[in-house]
């Protein structure tokens, strides 16, 4: 059976998961990538943020959200009054998918097959971290966490409670979607919405 499952150790600590993920061959994305990008944040974190996949910078540094989208996210987290130490940051897909164009590597959206293949890692992270709230940053994260496609515009902001999930889920836009907006007003409104959605998630913490 394809997918990450056979590489995921049972009842593993976060450190064990991270080490095991280096050897994952659950889909073909590991091959052209520099390294796996697993997560940052302690197992004691109460709030879990799930992104799409590592980008170019993340692929090189081995840490999630260290590039431009990560800067927007960090600003929004600060604006929401959340301490960064409270966060566990991860991605639905743990290898960078890209197209090579000359010397440049252009981000390519992960396919549903990649999201499904990588899902066992996220499942194991739920077990290891046991978050009190989960934020899905964008459609890929929502597809992975909820197991189905959701329209961000309609699903965003309202906590969703689903059987089989360790915590309520707040869906919001991906920070890179904010970066792509051209008008200052649009970008400001989208940023404010991201901050509001993060506050909603923080409000779920016990
Ligand atoms: N975008 C993501 O979704 N995740 C990262 O780690 C970086 C950018
Ligand atoms: Fe394994 Fe996920 Fe990487 Fe695919 S993207 S090889 S499933 S860690």
From TrEMBL:
CDD domains: UDG-F4_TTUDGA_SPO1dp_like
GO molecular function, a single term: deaminated base DNA N-glycosylase activity
Pfam families, per the entry: UDG
GO biological process: DNA repair
InterPro entries the UniProt entry points to: UDG_Type-4/5, Ura-DNA_glyco_family4, Uracil-DNA_glycosylase-like, Uracil-DNA_glycosylase-like_sf
Keyword field: 4Fe-4S, DNA damage, DNA repair, Hydrolase, Iron, Iron-sulfur, Metal-binding
SMART domains: UDG, UreE_C
Domain Uracil-DNA glycosylase-like: 38-199
Top-rank taxon: Bacteria
SUPFAM superfamilies associated with the record: Uracil-DNA glycosylase-like (SSF52141)
Family the entry assigns: Belongs to the uracil-DNA glycosylase (UDG) superfamily. Type 4 (UDGa) family.
NCBIfam families named among the record's database cross-references: UDG_fam4, UDG_fam_dom
Protein known as: Type-4 uracil-DNA glycosylase
């Amino acid at each position: 059976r394809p997918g990450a499952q056979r590489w995921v150790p049972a009842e593993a600590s976060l450190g064990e998961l991270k080490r095991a993920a280096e050897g994952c061959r659950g889909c073909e994305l590991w091959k052209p990538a520099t390294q796996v990008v697993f997560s940052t944040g302690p197992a004691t974190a109460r709030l879990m943020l799930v992104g799409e996949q590592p980008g170019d910078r993340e692929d090189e540094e081995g840490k999630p959200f260290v590039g431009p989208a990560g800067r927007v996210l960090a600003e929004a987290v600060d604006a929401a009054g959340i301490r960064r130490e409270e966060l566990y940051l991860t991605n639905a897909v743990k290898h960078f998918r890209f197209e090579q164009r000359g010397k440049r590597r252009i981000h390519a959206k992960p396919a549903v097959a990649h999201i499904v293949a990588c899902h066992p890692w996220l499942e194991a992270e739920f077990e290891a971290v046991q978050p009190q709230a989960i934020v899905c940053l964008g459609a890929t994260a929502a597809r992975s966490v909820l197991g189905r496609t959701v329209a961000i515009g309609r699903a965003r902001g309202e906590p969703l409670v689903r059987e089989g999930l360790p915590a309520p889920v707040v869906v919001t836009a991906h920070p890179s979607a904010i970066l792509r907006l051209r008008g200052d007003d649009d970008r400001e409104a989208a940023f404010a919405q991201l901050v509001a959605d993060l506050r909603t998630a923080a409000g779920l913490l016990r």
